[in-house]
């Protein structure tokens, strides 16, 4: 049942429109598994050897520990501000608002990195297939136009498209896996990559630094709380499914990649041609036609990631607009599509301007645009997961808004320590992410999230002094119970019908 409201007014998004599988599509699509495997997994093999599959599994297990406290806290955070809302709940409004700005900036940077990658990959693919040679930024603007249209429309449309694109990119990797396993790999199948002497090496820290980047953004499940069916069940379920899937899938595919060339030759092959590693494997075990399909699906994988990041960023804008931190118009909902259309248009304009600025600057879309923005975004999101873990622990130890939960508090403490290690590893090996030895580039990648956090915290202090009414409401919007003023009487009138409808199809929703 959709809450009726007047056009151009802040109200609820498309309630009860997303099931667990839909939210998983948004989160996993943002991770772009095909792109991550083709572009990043060979680097993991280079820096960590054949034990790289275990690195992805370890990163997944650490994220699972984080998910325990995160999902338990989800029942007590009725706001779709994700990191902002969770950190505010445990660590206070100043830290919460600082985190909100870091989240928006870092997700925007991650999206920009995908625009650069999408433009470069599409430029090469279209040129090779049909001989049309256009600069990368033209294709990036085409992607921005597609994303803006889909982001403006109902979230249901985006969920369906992401579902199709995600299935296709997963299937093509599974086709490669079947080919490698059926032929027994290059020298026979084995579990050698998981042997202790290959896992517990001095280079495993570098593998973890690369692996954690592949999971960035799975907390976005909470951003869709307002649009989820039975959010107290759907959001935790989607979170666990996304983390488990990514951990197992990444580990399995990287193991397949090692088997494709054999434990003795995998690293040397990756060193000789990291960009063509997976393409060579597909050519060898499946055929050139499958390789062509893989190249095309990398383009669609990047497009899916762009749409997923777009929806995540607009939900942050929607949440902050409702609390008057940013212009309230960003929280306005389209009368037909029930989407945060003004936030969507705003985000699209920012993306287009940024792409044009990088185009004028004549930067390399992969080695500079994608690498620099992705590294900065990854550091910021990992730092927010670190703070969220601490917030979970503090929240459940205090027990102010809920009963004490010792298990959740312990999970928060453990996740805080583990993410502290992860953050240190990423910062220590930041040159792997930036693809640069420049002290300036690497310092900006690490320092920019800190600067943004401080600016957000200072804004919170200014709001507390000058706009106490706004400060009082930070992070307090209850999207589960908040209704548009004009809809109250309608809801009372339709309540019996709604109850019958929910009882009739409630089982179908989950």
UniProtKB/TrEMBL annotation:
Chief localization class? membrane
UniProt key word Membrane:
yes
Q: Which UniProt keywords apply?
A: Membrane, Transmembrane, Transmembrane helix
Q: A single GO CC term, please? A: membrane
Question: Which terms does the UniProt entry file under GO BP?
Answer: transmembrane transport
Q: Which residues form the Amino acid permease/ SLC12A domain?
A: 23-439
Could you tell me the membrane topology recorded for this protein? Multi-pass membrane protein
**By its UniProt entry, which InterPro entries does this protein fall under?**
AA-permease/SLC12A_dom, APC_superfamily
| A Pfam family of this chain | AA_permease
* Segments crossing the lipid bilayer: 23-48, 54-73, 94-116, 136-155, 162-182, 202-226, 238-261, 296-318, 338-361, 373-396, 408-427, 439-463
Statement: the UniProt record of this protein carries the keyword Disulfide bond: no
Protein name, per record: Amino acid permease
Origin species, per record, is Rhodococcoides trifolii
Q: What is the lineage of its organism?
A: Bacteria, Bacillati, Actinomycetota, Actinomycetes, Mycobacteriales
């Amino acid at each position: 049942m959709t809450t009726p409201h007047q056009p151009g007014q802040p109200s609820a998004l498309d309630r009860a429109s997303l099931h667990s599988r839909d939210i998983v599509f948004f989160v996993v699509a943002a991770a772009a598994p095909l792109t991550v495997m083709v572009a990043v997994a060979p680097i993991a093999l280079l820096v960590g050897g054949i034990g790289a599959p275990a690195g992805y599994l370890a990163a997944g297990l650490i994220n699972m520990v984080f998910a325990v406290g995160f999902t338990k806290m989800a029942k007590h955070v009725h706001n779709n501000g994700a990191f902002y809302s969770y950190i505010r709940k445990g660590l206070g409004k100043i830290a919460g608002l600082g985190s909100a700005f870091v989240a928006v900036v870092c997700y925007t940077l991650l999206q920009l990195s995908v625009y650069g990658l999408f433009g470069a990959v599409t430029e090469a693919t279209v040129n090779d297939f049909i001989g049309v040679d256009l600069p990368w930024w033209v294709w990036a603007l085409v992607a921005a136009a597609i994303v803006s249209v889909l982001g403006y429309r109902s979230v249901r449309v985006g969920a369906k498209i992401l579902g199709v694109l995600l299935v296709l990119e997963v299937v093509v990797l599974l086709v490669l896996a079947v080919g490698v396993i059926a032929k027994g790999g290059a020298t026979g199948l084995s579990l050698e990559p998981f042997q202790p002497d290959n896992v517990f090496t001095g280079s495993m820290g570098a593998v973890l630094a690369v692996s954690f980047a592949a999971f960035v953004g799975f907390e976005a499940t909470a951003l869709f709380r307002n649009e989820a069916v039975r959010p107290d069940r759907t959001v935790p379920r989607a979170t666990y499914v996304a983390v488990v899937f990514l951990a197992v899938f990444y580990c399995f595919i990287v193991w397949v990649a090692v088997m494709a060339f054999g434990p003795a030759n995998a690293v040397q092959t990756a060193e000789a041609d990291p960009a063509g590693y997976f393409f060579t494997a597909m050519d060898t075990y499946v055929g050139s036609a499958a390789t062509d399909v893989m190249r095309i699906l990398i383009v669609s994988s990047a497009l899916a990631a762009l749409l997923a990041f777009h929806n995540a960023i607009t939900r942050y804008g929607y949440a902050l607009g409702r609390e008057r931190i940013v212009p309230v118009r960003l929280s306005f909902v389209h009368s037909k599509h029930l989407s945060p259309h003004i936030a969507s248009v705003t985000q699209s304009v920012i993306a287009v301007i940024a792409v044009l600025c990088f185009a004028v600057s004549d930067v390399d879309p992969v080695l500079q645009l994608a690498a620099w923005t992705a590294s900065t975004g990854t550091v910021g999101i990992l730092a927010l997961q670190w703070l969220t873990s601490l917030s979970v622990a503090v929240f459940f130890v205090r027990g102010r808004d809920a009963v004490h939960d010792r298990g959740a508090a312990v999970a928060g403490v453990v996740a805080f320590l583990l993410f502290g290690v992860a953050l240190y590893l990423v910062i220590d090996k930041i040159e792997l992410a930036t693809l640069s030895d420049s002290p300036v580039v690497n310092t900006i990648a690490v320092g920019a999230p800190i600067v943004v956090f401080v600016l957000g915290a200072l804004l919170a202090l200014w709001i507390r002094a000058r706009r106490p009414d706004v400060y009082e409401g930070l992070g307090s919007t209850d999207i589960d119970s908040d209704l548009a003023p004009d809809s109250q009487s309608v809801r009372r009138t339709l309540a019996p019908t709604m109850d019958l409808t929910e009882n009739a199809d409630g089982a179908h929703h989950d």
